Amino acid sequence: MDIMLFSNGQLPGNTKPLEYGLDWIEGVVERTGVKKLVFIPYAVIRASHDDRTKMVQESLGRFGCEVVGIHQAEDPVKAIEEADGILVSGGNTWVLNKTLHDKGLIGPIRKAVLKQNKLYIGWSAGTNIGSPTIRTTNDMPIVTAAVLPSLNLIPFQINPHYIEASIDGHMGETRDERIEEFLLVNPHEIVVGIPEGTMLHVHDGHLHYYTANGKPLKLFRNQQEAEYFNADDDIQFLMEHSC
């Protein structure tokens, strides 16, 4: 099993999706031998799905991979079944999760990743849906969708694009305060904040943290002081969490 969950798709100065994490991806591609990847761009709102597919192909084509957009497939379920791996773009998590449910793709994706050991690479919204639910997304519910359960590839909640900051003059809640509210209502959950340029990788059940810029992940528990973990720290205990 290989599940790669990136906080975001690009860093400043990058021109291609996942450019900062291509070395990490290359190692997995070489080890697994994946060639055909199905790309799910449903979260993309302000750009063409075809254009985004082309951009991802340009990023991963250097490894000999073929990227096929699921939106172009006559049978999306068959496209997942025939692929060696699954790529899921960032964008709006609500739209993405609703579309996956509407098209009956939650079960097939879970089967492909958890039962057939197909590679899963997601970023931003594509990482949000790897959690049991999308309740810790930063995105606005721009569609009428009360569907919260998602792929449940990992047993804890993720907050991608995590930023530990207060904006001068901004009187709304900080990210930490929003996560604190979530945990007060859901005290048995945990939330992992992963900042820009970072990635969580599950390989054969073992969890590792990668960072392109040295930023640590931040672990939130209800009514406990948050903890920081770096790339070399053991975070396997997160995979043993149950709510």
Give the beta-strand count. 11
Largest sheet, in brief, is:
7 strands, mixed
Secondary structure category: alpha/beta
Please identify the top-level CATH class: Alpha Beta
Q: What's the number of structural domains?
A: 1
Strand order of the largest sheet: 3-2-4-5-1-8-9
Per the CATH scheme, the topology name is Rossmann fold
Strand share of the residues? Answer: 15-25%
End-to-end gap: 23 Å
GO molecular function: serine-type peptidase activity
Organism: Photobacterium marinum
Protein name: Alpha-aspartyl dipeptidase Peptidase E
InterPro entries: Class_I_gatase-like, Peptidase_S51
Quick tags:
4-stranded mixed sheet; single chain; 27% helix; alpha/beta; 243 residues; serine protease; Rossmann fold; serine-type peptidase activity; 7-stranded mixed sheet; protease
Structural description of this entry:
By secondary structure, this protein is an alpha/beta fold. It has one domain: 3-Layer(aba) Sandwich (Rossmann fold), CATH 3.40.50. Helix content is 27%, strand content 21%. The protein has helices spanning 22-32, 49-60, 76-82, 93-102, 106-115, 125-128, 175-185, and strands spanning 2-6, 36-40, 66-69, 85-88, 119-123, 157-160, 190-194, 198-203, 206-211, 217-221, 227-229. It has a seven-stranded mixed β-sheet, with helices on both faces. It has a four-stranded mixed β-sheet with strand order 6-7-10-11. The radius of gyration is 17 Å and the shape is globular. The two termini are 23 Å apart. 41% of the residues are buried. The mean pLDDT is 94.
